[in-house]
Automatic annotation (TrEMBL):
<keyword id="KW-1278">Translocase</keyword>
<dbReference type="InterPro" id="IPR027417">
    <property type="entry name" value="P-loop_NTPase"/>
</dbReference>
<keyword id="KW-0592">Phosphate transport</keyword>
<dbReference type="InterPro" id="IPR017871">
    <property type="entry name" value="ABC_transporter-like_CS"/>
</dbReference>
<feature type="domain" description="ABC transporter">
    <location>
        <begin position="5"/>
        <end position="247"/>
    </location>
</feature>
<dbReference type="GO" id="GO:0035435">
    <property type="term" value="P:phosphate ion transmembrane transport"/>
</dbReference>
<keyword id="KW-0472">Membrane</keyword>
<dbReference type="InterPro" id="IPR003593">
    <property type="entry name" value="AAA+_ATPase"/>
</dbReference>
<dbReference type="GO" id="GO:0005315">
    <property type="term" value="F:phosphate transmembrane transporter activity"/>
</dbReference>
<keyword id="KW-1003">Cell membrane</keyword>
<dbReference type="GO" id="GO:0005886">
    <property type="term" value="C:plasma membrane"/>
</dbReference>
<dbReference type="InterPro" id="IPR005670">
    <property type="entry name" value="PstB-like"/>
</dbReference>
<keyword id="KW-0813">Transport</keyword>
<keyword id="KW-0547">Nucleotide-binding</keyword>
<dbReference type="InterPro" id="IPR003439">
    <property type="entry name" value="ABC_transporter-like_ATP-bd"/>
</dbReference>
<protein>
    <submittedName>
        <fullName>Phosphate ABC transporter ATP-binding protein</fullName>
    </submittedName>
</protein>
<comment type="function">
    <text>Part of the ABC transporter complex PstSACB involved in phosphate import. Responsible for energy coupling to the transport system.</text>
</comment>
């Protein structure tokens, strides 16, 4: 299940624009890593290279290696669709299929991959919804549309959908930015639960959230205006927020810029 990520000398481009300059970092299995940094420094871009979502943008490309338990996900014989299956993603805005039932939303990926057995799909839906801390709230309305849930419930539904296919890694791009504080706490509690089984990387603008949920934190910054983003420092979250190695990290977390 949970796997280790090692990114080495990763350069990321949008056409001619060099968005991210040579990032190297590792994420241990069963841990949460938070990406923080000012707007435009490349956090989401780096996140999307971890499951080959970056290259779906026309003209976008990646140089360097991203290893999943030692296997390069950019090797020529690797199928990007399979990579996206084993490295799931949850987006900023909850994006359930609004008219599809709650149950079918959860198992959509499995049905697409050819699983037809109704009993098996029901069991997987229940397991994933329990895993996403949503089961008790929806168990009596599984046939109702996913779009009828609250924003926080929809985001947990999207997490259930992501874990239903049993990924090795969960990538979360500001998963709470569209949610109220109570729903945010529910997602943060869920992240703490999920890290027992998954490797998690989360982009967040909320530094308290990074401090609350993550084991290690990566601070990204721009080289300068119009320059690529870079990884300034990755360290234990406690260290980043108490005694970072780099002055720019300290300036950022203490609110002196960004
Ligand atoms: N689809 C795209 N096409 C061209 N350039 C892009 C695209 N997406 C992002 N960029 C550029 O890449 C750089 C990094 O953007 P990215 O969204 O990764 O930053 P970020 O740190 O996640 O920002 P934010 O915190 O505002 O979400 C920015 O200069 C951005 O304008």
């Amino acid at each position: 299940m949970a796997k280790r990520i090692d990114a080495k000398d990763v350069d990321i481009f949008y056409g001619k624009f060099h968005a991210v300059d040579k990032v190297t970092f590792s994420v241990p299995p069963r841990s949460v890593t938070a990406f923080i940094g000012p707007s435009g420094c490349g956090k989401s871009t780096v996140l999307r290279t971890l499951n080959r979502m970056h290259e779906v943008i026309p003209g976008a490309r990646v140089e360097g290696n991203v290893m999943l338990d030692g296997e390069n996900i950019y090797a020529s014989n690797v199928d990007p669709v399979q990579v996206r299956r084993t490295i799931g993603m949850v987006f900023q805005r909850p994006n359930p299929f609004p008219t599809m039932s709650i149950r079918d939303n959860v198992v959509a990926g499995l049905k697409l991959a050819g699983t037809k057995n109704k009993k098996q799909l029901d069991e997987i839906a229940e397991r994933a919804l329990r895993g996403a801390n949503l089961w008790t709230e929806v168990k009596d309305r599984l046939a109702k549309p996913g779009g009828g849930l609250s924003g926080g419930q929809q985001q947990r539904l999207c997490i259930a959908r992501a874990i239903a296919v049993q990924p090795d890694v969960l990538l979360m791009d500001e998963p709470c930015s569209a949610l109220d504080p109570i729903s945010t706490l529910a997602i943060e509690d869920l992240i703490a639960e999920l890290k027992k089984d998954y490797t998690i990387v989360i982009v967040t603008h909320n530094m308290q959230q990074a401090a609350r949920v993550s084991d290690q934190t990566a601070f990204f910054n721009l080289h300068g205006v119009g320059q690529p983003g870079r990884l300034v420092e990755l360290n234990d979250t406690e260290k980043i927020f108490s005694n970072p190695d780099e002055k720019s990290t300290e300036d950022y977390i203490s609110g002196r810029f960004g």
